[in-house]
Structure to design on (485 residues):
């Protein structure tokens, strides 16, 4: 099966797509005929989560050998629960807990897998170059990627995060990262600045590094190897809802997804294209509601105020993975996608035609909620159900509550509340005084919910990284790091 760039006719196989991360023309690798792949979704629903992962990843990334052993290396013993991503009934909703992995965010599901794929791809292609993984993070990807790639032979990882744009706990998680091949750097700017810098490094350094012993790749969801493992939990949730009697096989389920870079929700769309009976995919945004406006009007306009919210992983105005949806929705029209992306780059906006918009709206719906609504949702969910949610999950919860639901709704829960204890305590009406560890302990006192071990053990760890650079220094920073070895 061939992957194609969303911006040209350039094609490659799944192994090379994973190795490259971003296509050389700046586009994203996408499967132009994903709905045609042979995939027995009913058989898939009979399996346990790891076997599901094997089946789905074999279908989406068919050029990898021995997926079974890659999946087992990625997940065995790494998550708090045996089935990786459990579903819990909370009031009228089903909450899909995606935060039971090694860094307490949903990114762990994909970033436990990606290093296995990258290593396998190096072996299969006989690649000699060392891969440097460049990662822009809005808070959670960074840590999950560092943990996934630490001390993986043949790889090195550099993470850029927005200075004062992540929670204290998130920052601690990253700056204390252990491992001999890791590097973390703050950028004076927001996530979009980090992401732009990383994309710039890819395009500007490609030539420079051509005959060097180094090459670059990405751990962001622009890499198809990041996206594919996320398809699995849509199937797993559906299977669990059949098992608990909520639905019968074939009945539609809606999924409400707290969205930033559009990777998580796009994986849900891939699940639908592979046959899973998905009703609507509800795109939930915080105050940075550029996607809500786009899905409701067809106009994408990033020229708007940028808000720093309590759900920082969704503080994004340029949603990279939307490009993959546009590619499918426009009828695989790479020329058209290329024009829209150029317009976004040059004018800060683009508008899609009616046909593309109605294709998107057949499967997607969008809503948003502001800071006050987010806090109220955390409070209500705790008071009514005695279930603690983080601010990202709360955005989706609130959007689901505001809607007329006919199908059963799965709310994707993307982070542990202990990654954002200050915001959660404020929402519960408790004091938010003290450092991150005081706050975690207070939240534990108030709720009785256990603190994940990877977070409670952060206290006392040594800070290893404290550099901060300007946003236009990312490219030279990367070059420096590569040269100084
Ligand atoms: C990354 C992240 C999101 C957004 O996911 P996308 O794939 O970027 O849309 C939502 N919640 C949390 C906690 C995250 O870390």
């Amino acid at each position: 099966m061939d992957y194609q760039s969303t911006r040209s006719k350039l094609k490659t196989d799944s192994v090379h797509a994973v190795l490259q991360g971003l296509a050389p023309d700046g586009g994203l690798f996408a499967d132009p005929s994903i709905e045609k792949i042979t995939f027995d979704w009913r058989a898939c629903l009979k399996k346990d989560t790891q076997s599901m992962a094997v089946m789905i990843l074999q279908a989406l990334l068919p050029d990898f050998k021995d997926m079974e052993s890659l999946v087992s290396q990625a997940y065995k013993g790494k998550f708090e629960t045996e089935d990786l991503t459990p579903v819990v009934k909370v009031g009228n909703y089903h909450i899909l807990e995606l935060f039971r992995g090694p860094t307490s965010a949903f990114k762990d599901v994909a970033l436990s897998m990606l290093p296995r794929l990258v290593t396998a791809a190096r072996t299969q292609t006989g690649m000699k170059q060392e891969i440097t993984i460049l990662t822009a993070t809005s808070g959670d990807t960074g840590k999950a990627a560092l943990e996934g790639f630490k001390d993986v032979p043949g790889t090195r990882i550099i993470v850029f995060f927005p200075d004062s744009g992540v929670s204290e706990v998130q920052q601690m998680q990253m700056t204390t990262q252990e491992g001999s091949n890791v590097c973390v750097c703050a950028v004076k700017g927001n996530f979009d600045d980090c992401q732009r810098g990383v994309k710039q490094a890819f395009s500007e350094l490609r030539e420079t590094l051509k005959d060097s012993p180094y090459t670059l790749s990405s751990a962001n969801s622009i890499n198809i190897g990041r996206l594919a493992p996320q398809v699995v939990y849509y199937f797993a949730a559906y299977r669990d809802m059949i098992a608990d009697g909520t639905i019968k096989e074939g009945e539609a389920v809606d999924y409400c997804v707290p969205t930033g870079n559009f990777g998580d929700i796009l994986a849900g769309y891939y699940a639908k294209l592979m046959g899973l009976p998905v009703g609507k995919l509800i795109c939930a945004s915080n105050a940075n509601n550029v996607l809500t406006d786009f899905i409701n009007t067809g106009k994408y306009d990033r020229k708007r105020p940028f808000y720093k919210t309590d759900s920082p992983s969704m503080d994004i105005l340029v949603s990279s993975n939307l490009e993959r949806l546009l590619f499918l929705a426009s009828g695989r029209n790479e020329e058209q996608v290329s024009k829209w992306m150029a317009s976004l780059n040059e004018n800060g906006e683009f508008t899609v035609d009616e046909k593309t918009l109605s294709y998107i709206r057949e499967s997607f719906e969008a809503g948003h909620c502001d800071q006050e609504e987010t806090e109220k949702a955390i409070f209500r969910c705790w008071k009514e159900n005695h279930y603690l949610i983080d601010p990202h999950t709360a955005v989706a919860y609130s959007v689901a509550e505001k809607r007329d639901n006919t199908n059963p709704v799965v709310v994707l829960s993307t982070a542990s509340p202990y990654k954002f204890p200050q915001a959660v305590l404020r929402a519960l009406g408790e004091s938010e005084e003290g450092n991150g560890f005081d706050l975690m302990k207070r939240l534990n006192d108030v709720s009785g919910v256990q603190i994940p071990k990877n977070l409670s053990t952060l206290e006392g760890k040594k800070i290893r990284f404290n550099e901060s650079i300007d946003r236009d220094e990312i490219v030279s920073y990367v070059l420096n790091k590569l040269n100084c070895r």
